[in-house]
């Protein structure tokens, strides 16, 4: 007995965990700095930590009330109806739900390259095909409607990542509006704002709701996560904001109790902790600025909590940095074998990353 033919499906390559690297290097994890997965250097909101402890005693029940409460809190935050918020097991889960809701067999999704691998993986799970648009063609990975439209051929979903992982570039709302307007009525533009809190940009929810001078659209959806600015990557919590015309689709496509009691309780506490998010964003901005200024290699302007650095041989540089205790992301798996991506850290972490990278670049020259 075998699973179905999965030879077309590639496995998701997550960044290596700090424990795993510490075992390999035979050192204590506290000696290492991990800036490879765009996690929050300040951890979760303290309010979320308290909520998680308190929620521990209620995990014998299904999370019906917590799910509804968090949905309402998120809807309130965006000024949308509860039915427009699709909670999920991380942003990844929300990607799956959008594909489940949209894709007929053999429909195609259009994804950016370089880009986040899970869009394509998920589309394939849902019997879809994948086409790509190339961001490298634009200087500095600039994102305009044109960048996408050059490759667009009537796909069912167009994925836009803004800020984009791993480049940090964004697509202005007016360009997203133009993209949505110039693609077919049956094409949904999904704007993945996993790193939205770190950008100096309005959310594309404005396009769904018709705010800030935009007309309301029913062909745009937005993806958000609690994994980055909220520091809750480990609880797995994210969501999509969808057009209001889709009111009942979620109940038909979601996995029952799409987010756990622990995730919902942590999310409820975190969503109101603006102070923690502000502190996190401030740290990211400082770290981004220092890395741009102090790294002896080209660092792209980024609106995420990470920067992309041109290092030559990314695998060699990432490996050597790891040997010296700093874990960064080799972007070969994103299709950028000449670049590493470094997550924004605290002052000390940033300093160590900069020093280590500069020394490695010097030594490998
Ligand atoms: N979108 C982008 C662009 C990402 O980089 C990530 C995580 N690396 C996600 C979505 C999904 O994150 P999560 O499932 O942790 O919410």
UniProtKB/TrEMBL annotation:
<dbReference type="Pfam" id="PF00155">
    <property type="entry name" value="Aminotran_1_2"/>
</dbReference>
<keyword id="KW-0368">Histidine biosynthesis</keyword>
<feature type="modified residue" description="N6-(pyridoxal phosphate)lysine">
    <location>
        <position position="228"/>
    </location>
</feature>
<dbReference type="InterPro" id="IPR015422">
    <property type="entry name" value="PyrdxlP-dep_Trfase_small"/>
</dbReference>
<comment type="pathway">
    <text>Amino-acid biosynthesis; L-histidine biosynthesis; L-histidine from 5-phospho-alpha-D-ribose 1-diphosphate: step 7/9.</text>
</comment>
<dbReference type="InterPro" id="IPR015421">
    <property type="entry name" value="PyrdxlP-dep_Trfase_major"/>
</dbReference>
<keyword id="KW-0663">Pyridoxal phosphate</keyword>
<feature type="domain" description="Aminotransferase class I/classII large">
    <location>
        <begin position="31"/>
        <end position="357"/>
    </location>
</feature>
<dbReference type="InterPro" id="IPR050106">
    <property type="entry name" value="HistidinolP_aminotransfase"/>
</dbReference>
<dbReference type="InterPro" id="IPR005861">
    <property type="entry name" value="HisP_aminotrans"/>
</dbReference>
<dbReference type="GO" id="GO:0030170">
    <property type="term" value="F:pyridoxal phosphate binding"/>
</dbReference>
<keyword id="KW-0808">Transferase</keyword>
<dbReference type="GO" id="GO:0004400">
    <property type="term" value="F:histidinol-phosphate transaminase activity"/>
</dbReference>
<comment type="similarity">
    <text>Belongs to the class-II pyridoxal-phosphate-dependent aminotransferase family. Histidinol-phosphate aminotransferase subfamily.</text>
</comment>
<dbReference type="InterPro" id="IPR004839">
    <property type="entry name" value="Aminotransferase_I/II_large"/>
</dbReference>
<dbReference type="GO" id="GO:0000105">
    <property type="term" value="P:L-histidine biosynthetic process"/>
</dbReference>
<dbReference type="InterPro" id="IPR001917">
    <property type="entry name" value="Aminotrans_II_pyridoxalP_BS"/>
</dbReference>
<keyword id="KW-0032">Aminotransferase</keyword>
<dbReference type="InterPro" id="IPR015424">
    <property type="entry name" value="PyrdxlP-dep_Trfase"/>
</dbReference>
<keyword id="KW-0028">Amino-acid biosynthesis</keyword>
<protein>
    <recommendedName>
        <fullName>Histidinol-phosphate aminotransferase</fullName>
        <ecNumber>2.6.1.9</ecNumber>
    </recommendedName>
</protein>
